[in-house]
Structure formats: structure tokens, C-alpha cells
Structures
1.
Amino acid sequence: MLYTGVEAVMRNLKLLTSPRILMVDDEIEQLKLRAQVIEMCGFAAITAYGPMEAIDIMTARQRGTIDLVILDYNMPVMNGCALAQKLRSIRPELKTILHSGSAGIPRSEMTSVDVLIHKGDGIAPLLKQIVEFARVGMLRSGSSALEADGA
């Protein structure tokens, strides 16, 4: 059975192009589970088990093939906010979601993060945000990037 609220999100997916999502977390089992749910909803998910692997993926994939990154905050080497900043230096138009269970993340660190979603709220808010980014044209459609007004 899927998480509460996921069914409603899935009904709207047929109208959307599938963004390419890079998911980064050092909690491997939780990352795999979230990636499976996201893929069941029709999105393409690539996983990285830490910041350095995420950076390698972004540079190896020529920057343009990842539309959205979903990052944990607490990771070795650098936190999710620092990683968001690094990934945005590689691809400035990249959309970022900080998906973390950490409380009290300083807003001053979140300058390269578009949205904060707490893990404790379940996966439905995360899916809803992915759909929202795609719906308003903030993610690439096909092979060309779309610009959103006011983003």
C-alpha cells in the first residue's frame, strides 16, 4: 500500500513530463525506499549515497540531464545546504529540495535550497512538490529547460 496522499498525486502524473531526479542521502536503506516510491510514481530517480558521489554524477552527466535534486541535510563531508550550493555552481537553474529530519536548520544556510520538506511529514509532500515544480514549468520539459516567472 502506498503512503497516504500518494494516490492523488499519481492521478495527476500522466499529464507531466518526467523530471530526472538525483536523490542524495547517506542513509542507504531509506534512500532506496524513497527512490522506489518516486519511481513507482513515474519519475526517473538516480541515487547517490553522499555528497561526493552526487557531485561526480552531476559532472559526469554533463550537468543538463538532472532537473531536480533531493538532499538530506546531515551527511558526511558536507551538509545538504552546502551540497546544494555546490551543485548550483555546476548548474545554476537546478531545482533543490532539502528533505531532512533535522530540526533547526539555519535559514542562512538555505540560500541554494528552493524548498524544505521534513521527512517526518511522509513522502506525499515530497511527491506533491515534485509535481508542482513540473506543473509550473520549473523543470525541463523534454530536452529543453523551461524558465519560470518569479522563480
Note: Residues 65 and 140 are 9 Å apart (CA to CA).
2.
Amino acid sequence: MAGWQPAWAWRVGLIALGTVTYFLLFVPFWLRELRPFLGKDPEIRVRRARSLTLTPYLTAGILSCIAGALNPVGPLLILLSAAAASFGGKSGLAWMWTLLRGPLIPSSELQLPQIERSRGWMVAAVILAIAFIAGLGPGVKFHSG
């Protein structure tokens, strides 16, 4: 975009394009992809979708902020990048399930069994979370040599 004029118009246009595609294209697409895991009953669909989207949203946001807190640049980095990118950029996960309350996203003909909790996957997730925080939190340093 360097050199494109007027810069303010390009910025406004790109913000509008990003907002429209996120809210009207990507969020409904992601929710339609979840339909086979949600069931057909309207109340169950909303409850399962909330569980399948809100838990990863909060987990990813919190882990990113913890990792960001370890960055030597300081707490301002957490506020500006880790929290904003994690909680802001993935905000669709926090509210997309509310779209199931209306007729916008019908249930799928294909219905898969409900996803059950697995201790093995939980342990693997904790191990990966620790590796993520320990490895990326302080930053990755490259040495030329």
C-alpha cells in the first residue's frame, strides 16, 4: 500500500472490506462447518456451539496473553499485540453461536456423534500449552553464524 493515495481512503476501504468479509462471509462459513457436530434440536445446537467455540476462544486468548507476559519487550506488548490479536482477531468464536438462534444457519443433514472429552487430548493440550508459553513467550532468537 506504500504510495497509494489517498492513504486514509485506502485504510478505510480495507477496514470496511475486512469487517464485511469477517462478519458476513467467514463467521457464517465457520458456523456452517460446525453444523454436523451440533445436533438438530435448537437448544442443544446453541449449547454445543457455545461450548465448541467459546472454550477455544478463551483458552487461546489467555495462553497468548501469558506467553506475551514473558516477552522481554514488556506489558505494553501484551496489550497491543497478544490481547488485541487473540481476543479481538478471534472474537467471532466468542459470539458466533448466537447466530444459531435464528433461521440463518439451518441444521445439517449430516449428523456426527457428539464430541466427548478425552483425558489423553487434555494432557496433550496442557503439554502443548506449556511448550507454547515456554518456547514462544520469551521470544524466538535467531543467531546468525
Note: The two ends are 34 Å apart (CA to CA).
